[in-house]
Each structure stands twice: as C-alpha cells, then as structure tokens.
Amino acid sequence: EGLWCLALDKVPLWYLIDNDRRITNEVFELQYFLGDTMQSLVDDLAGDVADRLRLGEAATRIEHGPQGVRVISARGVIEARSALLALPPATAAKLDFTPALPAELAKALSVWESGAVI
C-alpha cells in the first residue's frame, strides 16, 4: 500500500504482478534504510535553516507572488522569499493556494487518500 499510496483492493492484481516483474534490483535495498533515526535525518536536512523552521504549524493558505510567499496558519502569517511544506499529498490538496496550483498538480494531489502516505 505504501508503494502506490492506495489500499491494495484498489490496485489491480495484474498491475501488482507486472510491477513485480519489472523490479530488477541490483543492490540490497537495506542500504537505503536510515542508519540512525528519522529525527537525525531531519536534523541533517535542516542544516543552516534550523532556526527558521516552523514545525507543527498547520498552514491553511499559501499565497505566492513576485515578492515571495505568505503562509497563513492558525498562529498568524509568515512571509518569506520561499517556503518548503512537508506534508502528505492528501493534506496539501486541502490547502488554499493563491494563485491556484496548475491543473495537473491539483489533479495529482486529489487522487491520494488520507493516511495512505507519510
């Protein structure tokens, strides 16, 4: 379910079989697993921006224009040159974007099921 982000009963059996035939891993997949914790990965990725991260602040609206980005949350408004949102696709689909997301991206986000992706 994690690979397709859908419940298995919504993925045709023929697709699962065909996909399995196409996977020809040349290396052991465990080499891609984290050696430490997810928190250590976050700490490494945060690097020089750690003091500017806003964790646990649920955005409700994202406005993007020539002057930068405005992220509106229950705690207020955050303005920046750019923003990186770390959230599941189903949650991103519920945000109010101004200007609206491109149709292709909005459609892609709309097909994810809540709770199917972390």
What does this structure look like?
- This protein is of the alpha+beta class and 118 residues long.
- It has 4 helices and 4 strands, in the order H-H-E-E-E-H-E-H.
- It has helices at 13-22, 38-46, 89-92, 103-110; strands spanning 59-65, 68-73, 76-80, 96-98.
- A 4-stranded mixed β-sheet has the order 3-2-1-4, with no helix packed on it.
- Strand 2 (68-73) and strand 3 (76-80) form a beta hairpin.
- It is extended, with a radius of gyration of 18 Å.
- It starts with 12 loop residues before the first helix and ends in an 8-residue tail after the last helix.
Quick tags:
single chain; alpha+beta; four-stranded mixed β-sheet
> How many strand elements?
4
| Percent of residues in β-strands | 15-25%
- SSE order, as H and E? HHEEEHEH
> What helical percentage do the residues reach?
25-40%
Kindly report the average pLDDT value. Answer: 82
Domains, number: 1
CA-based shape: extended
* Terminal residue distance: 12 Å
Number of helices: 4
Largest beta-sheet details: 4 strands, mixed
- Provide the structure class: alpha+beta
- Strand order in the largest sheet: 3-2-1-4
Low-confidence parts lasting 5 or more residues at pLDDT below 50?
none
- Gyration radius from CA atoms, angstroms: 18 Å
